[in-house]
């Protein structure tokens, strides 16, 4: 039945007429009356991205700003676009949902920003006035994304995302020299002078996403936690758990040893254990290993791996033949390994349908499975900046390993996808600061410019 449902839904969605974006802020065709140009990273098909010269964005609506991008980066979610796992991508779409910059031009109805302000933008774009925005849930905005395909898949739409396909609103992204930000008063945060670009940049997404994952699942001081995935968001979750939320014990799982080694060093002296799922688990039995570490099961699990990481031949085959879009294997391990009446937080991306999900164990063990959704960054950016970053309680640059130039943006996608280890620096590529021609020099103590390995 699950296979048939997946097939039927896939046929329905793929047969849907390509969305005609009608909301004023949901389409971002790059046009420039002045004829000005810029460099941008564009999607050119599955496994192919390329830098191109494109039209520089201009004010399209009264509540827009256009910013000169001074810092951007590549996110694990961008790799779904690289691999063609997200619907409604078009050739020449401008990618990138994390970025910051300096305001260059301002729409006539923008009240809180002016030319020259240094700002970081939320990765999700919301209107600020609909029911969900008024509840502080900007990532669930009703106005900024009119994809009929998302409506068919999910029953409702979430907000537009910068640089993340027409499925998510069709807005041009931040992996560019300039970017238009709609509803700028609601989506941009002014960065104070004492905060470096490196510390501000990741408020656009992963700082807020990781924090939201912890609070959304109701994690409490003194509890134990499993974190599946030692990428940037997983490592941020570990930092929140250990430095802010007073976790009793955390275990971090991944198959990339250099990322686990990084975590051991970064959180030395804290109650963190790391497990390589390929070398530390007898017969690949992750659940058995987790019970060896915590006999009654773990209080909370965080899935920061997501839908692409199929392990078994069965699920690899089903994904390859479109019998499922998502593998449930990490979630099934989490369901098995948490304690009775434990909780699971899904921070990682899941896109569609899966087969073999262990719903019986979920029900019988009384487990709460909490999808976090896209994090409402607008709600979190300022309080996290003021209460944790400025005060030093949370350091977003802990996982900043490299600084690269925008001219290598396309190369960085492939290096990040392969989780390359930089032999010269002795560290794997985790989170990067990508500078443009508008950027300032690196802040003291931050990574200096190097070439993509």
How would you describe what is shown here?
Pfam families: ADH_N. Keywords: Metal-binding, Oxidoreductase, Zinc. Its cofactor is Zn(2+). This is GroES-like protein. The protein folds into two domains: about 15-205, Quinone Oxidoreductase, Chain A, domain 1 (Alpha-Beta Complex), CATH 3.90.180; about 220-370, Rossmann fold (3-Layer(aba) Sandwich). About 30% of the residues lie in helices and about 20% in strands. The protein has 15 helices and 19 strands. It has helices at about 1-15, 80, 130-135, 150-155, 185, 195-200, 205-215, 230-245, 255-265, 285-295, 315-320, 330-335, 360-365, 375-390, 410-415, and strands spanning about 35-45, 50-55, 65-70, 100-105, 120, 125, 160, 180, 190, 225-230, 250-255, 270-275, 300-305, 340-345, 370, 400-405, 420, 425-430, 430-435. A hairpin with a 4-residue loop joins strand 17 (about 420) and strand 18. Helix 7 packs across helix 8 and helix 10 runs parallel beside helix 12 (about 330-335). Mean pLDDT is about 95; it is low at about 1-25.
The number of distinct β-strands equals 19
Q: Unreliable stretches, pLDDT < 50, 5 or more residues? A: 1-27
Strand content: 15-25%
Q: For the record, give the distance between the C-alpha atoms at the N and C termini, rounded to a whole number.
A: 46 Å
Q: Which descriptor suits the 3D outline?
A: globular
Taking Cα atoms only, what radius of gyration do you get, to the nearest Å? 21 Å
The CATH fourth-level homologous superfamily of the largest domain: Medium-chain alcohol dehydrogenases, catalytic domain
Described by strand count, sense and barrel closure, the largest sheet is: 6 strands, parallel
CATH architectural arrangement of the largest domain: Alpha-Beta Complex
């Amino acid at each position: 039945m699950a296979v048939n449902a997946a097939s039927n839904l896939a046929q329905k969605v793929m047969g849907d007429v390509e969305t005609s974006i009608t909301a004023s802020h949901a389409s971002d065709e790059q046009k420039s009356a002045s004829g000005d140009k810029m460099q941008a990273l564009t999607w050119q098909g599955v496994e192919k991205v390329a830098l191109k010269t494109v039209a520089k964005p201009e004010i399209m609506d009264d509540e827009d700003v256009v910013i000169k991008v001074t810092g951007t980066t590549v996110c694990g979610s961008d790799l779904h676009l690289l691999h063609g796992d997200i619907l409604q991508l078009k050739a020449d779409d401008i990618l990138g949902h994390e970025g910051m910059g300096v305001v260059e031009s301002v729409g006539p109805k923008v009240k809180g920003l002016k030319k020259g302000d240094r700002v970081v933008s939320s990765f999700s774009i919301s209107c600020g006035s609909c029911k969900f925005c008024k509840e502080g849930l900007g990532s669930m905005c009703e106005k900024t994304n009119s994809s009929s395909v998302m409506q068919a898949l999910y029953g409702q739409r979430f907000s537009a995302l910068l640089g993340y396909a027409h499925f998510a609103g069709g807005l041009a992204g931040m992996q560019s020299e300039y970017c238009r930000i709609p509803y700028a008063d609601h989506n941009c945060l002014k960065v104070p002078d004492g905060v470096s670009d490196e510390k501000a940049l990741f408020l656009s997404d992963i700082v807020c996403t990781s924090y939201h994952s912890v609070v959304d699942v109701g994690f409490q001081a003194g509890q134990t936690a499993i974190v599946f995935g030692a990428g940037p968001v997983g490592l941020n979750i570990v930092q929140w758990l250990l430095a802010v939320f007073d976790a009793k014990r955390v275990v971090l799982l991944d198959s990339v040893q250099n990322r686990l080694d990084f975590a051991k060093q970064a959180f030395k002296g804290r109650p963190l254990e790391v497990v390589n799922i390929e070398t530390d688990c007898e017969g690949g039995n992750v659940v058995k290993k987790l019970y060896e570490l915590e006999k009654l099961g773990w209080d909370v699990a965080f899935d920061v791996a997501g839908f692409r990481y199929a392990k078994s031949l069965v699920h690899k085959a089903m994904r390859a033949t479109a019998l499922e879009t998502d593998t449930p294997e990490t979630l099934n391990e989490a369901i098995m390994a948490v304690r009775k009446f434990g909780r699971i937080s899904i921070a990682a991306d899941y896109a569609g349908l899966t087969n073999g999900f262990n719903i019986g164990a979920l029900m019988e063990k009384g487990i709460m499975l909490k999808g976090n959704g896209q994090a409402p960054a607008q709600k979190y950016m300022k309080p996290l900046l003021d209460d944790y970053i400025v005060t030093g309680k949370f350091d977003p640059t802990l996982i900043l390993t490299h600084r690269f130039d925008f001219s290598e943006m396309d190369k960085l996608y492939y290096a990040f996808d392969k989780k390359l280890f930089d032999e010269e620096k002795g560290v794997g590529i985790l989170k990067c600061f990508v500078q443009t021609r508008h950027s300032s020099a690196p802040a003291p103590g931050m990574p200096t410019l190097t070439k993509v390995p």
